[in-house]
Amino acid sequence: MMRQLKDLFQLTDRFYVPTEDILLIDINISGVNMDVDTDRVRMYVRLLFGQDFPFFCAIPIRKNTKYRIKNGFLYYDRQVMARVENIEGEKSDLYDVKENGAVLTLPDYLFRVEHMDPTSNIVDIGILQWIHKNFDAWMDHYEQIDLSSLQKIIIKQKNWPNENSLVQYILQVYARAQKLNFCGELMYLGNQLRSEEAMKKLENIENFSYCFQLDYFHGKSTNLEIGKKRLSLSQSKEIMAMALQQDWTVNYTYLVGIDDLENLKMGMRSLLTVTNRFPIINIWQGNDPTVKGKEVPNLEIFLEARTAIEAIYEKSRLKPQILDSNQPLWYTRFGDDILW
């Protein structure tokens, strides 16, 4: 977190990072103070200097921060820094303000585990109705007659009782979407799709992507949501290599600020060969209940991580996509490449 405003310009020179990016990163780390009945807000931020562009931010509400929002403006102490637009609390990604209808993230289905047969190829009728309900809700909200204008559908349902149930759900989502003229990308964001047998069942899905939910390397292991087991980095790499062999688009999620810098560099270099899309990298804001006994690092640590990641990906031709992350490390520039 910046101690005073002049730090902004000193850090720009030190790290060769645009001033706009440093300020937006610091806002993500520090949070904002405003009078709302929610823990986080989503908004567009238009800085009063640099690029006149609406940057999307998903920011925690905190009392002990120098940033505050009042009357549609963002202040650092008493200095006005930006206009803010479309402020809203956290809600279903079905109507994500950031995507403007281009991406639909299916909400979690609250299934009853005892009704899921591990050997069955039939999805519970309640799940089918859930899929139909959410597609219909999206079409009503955006006044569309089908899903032909939709660019991406994201499935990030957690804690399936078994891999086969997940596979059948993905197939049902795809089948229903096709009937509604969907021709965009279908992404699974999770880590329960692990076997070659399961992946082969999805081979007829066009434009399928697998974003492996990793979040942090944390030394030699990372969290796996199935049965609270641990999955090593090498095991994660094997799964992503298997997915890459299916001719899928493959990347992973990562939260900067949990691993130390050396573990970050080690993990990203290791996974560079098994991905063909830049990872979805977000700033860790300290709100992950699975990470205990650790505080959000200072601003310089995030800027050092940004520099290290750019060096790792310098020759890969992969770079971050603005719409992929809610708390990104990059806003206007990645290395020497302009992002907007």
Could you characterize what this model shows?
The protein has helices at residues 6-15, 19-30, 125-141, 163-179, 196-200, 233-244, 261-271, 299-312, and strands spanning 40-47, 55-60, 67-70, 73-76, 79-89, 103-106, 152-155, 185-190, 208-215, 221-223, 230-232, 249-256, 280-283, 333-334, 337-338. It has 340 residues and is α/β, with parallel strands linked by helices. It has a domain at 211-220 and 250-340. β12, α7 and β13 (280-283) form a beta-alpha-beta unit. Mean pLDDT is 87; it is low at 219-228.
Q: How is the secondary structure organized here?
A:
Elements lengths: L5 H10 L3 H12 L9 E8 L7 E6 L6 E4 L2 E4 L2 E11 L13 E4 L18 H17 L10 E4 L7 H17 L5 E6 L5 H5 L7 E8 L5 E3 L6 E3 H12 L4 E8 L4 H11 L8 E4 L15 H14 L20 E2 L2 E2 L2
Parallel strand pairs: 6-7, 7-8, 8-9, 9-12, 12-13
Antiparallel strand pairs: 1-2, 1-5, 3-4, 4-5, 10-11, 14-15
Tell me about the biggest sheet? 6 strands, parallel
Radius of gyration: 21 Å
The SSE string, one letter per element, is HHEEEEEEHEHEHEEEHEHEHEE
General shape: globular
- Tally of separate helices: 8
Could you tell me the number of beta strands?
Answer: 15
Q: What is the structural class?
A: alpha/beta
Strand content: 15-25%
Strand order of the largest sheet: 6-7-8-9-12-13
The helical percent reads 25-40%
First-to-last CA distance: 26 Å
Unreliable segments of 5+ consecutive residues? 219-228
Average pLDDT across residues? 87
